[in-house]
Structure formats: C-alpha cells, structure tokens
Amino acid sequence: xxxxxxxxxxxxxxxxxxxxxxxxxxxxxxxxxxxxxxxxxxxxxxxxxxxxxxxxxxxxxxxxxxxxxxxxxxxxxxxxxxxxxxxxxxxxxxxxxxxxxxxxxxxxxxxxxxxxxxxxxxxxxxxxxxxxxxxxx
Length: 137
What we know:
The protein is 58% helix and 3% strand.
C-alpha cells in the first residue's frame, strides 16, 4: 500500500508500526478523506446504486413470498391472506415487496431522466477517463 500517491503520514510510532503491518488507516484516509472526486458529481448519480439495492430487496422479498404463495385460482387469495396474517412478519414482507416495486420504478425514471438531462448518450462517451470506443480501430 505504500506505492502510489498516498498523503497519509503516521504521527506516532504505534501508527507507523501498525501502518507497516496493516495499512488500514492509510486505506481509510485515501478512500474517504482525500479521495479525488469530480466537481460535477452530485446526488443524481446515486440512483444506479439505489436501483441495485431495490432490485436485491425485490428479489429477496419475492423469493420469501413465493415460498408461501399458492398459484391456484381457488387458493391464491387465501394464501395471500395467510402470508399477511400467519407468517411471521408476512405483512412487512408483502408491504416491502409492493412498495419496493413502486420505488424501483420511481428510481428508474429518475435514473433515465438524469441520463437524458446530463447528455450521457452524446458522442464522447467516457468511462473513468477512458473512451468507450477503442482508439486502435
């Protein structure tokens, strides 16, 4: 971890000893305190991560709900009622799943609108400083 451009300077002998063996304070310093962030980065860029979290929540709650659901026309309503009333925290799982779907679509629309507003579809598309289109062609 000593390679690169780290500006972390341990002050005491214990910190130097700890940094030589396990550079955890250096990692935290370089990752959270002096990490270079572009000036145009704002909260609109967090919706991709929010979508990932919402998708994982939808999958997990959907799998648990599917374990208790009966896909028969005569038993479907009763199985949903059983989930809400008899399954431990079933009402919470069902609410998380149904409201999570709404929040997922809201986040998708905001994510798409951010891409349209900032012109992410325009020509010099770059990812981490490298052009998406190979320059060797």
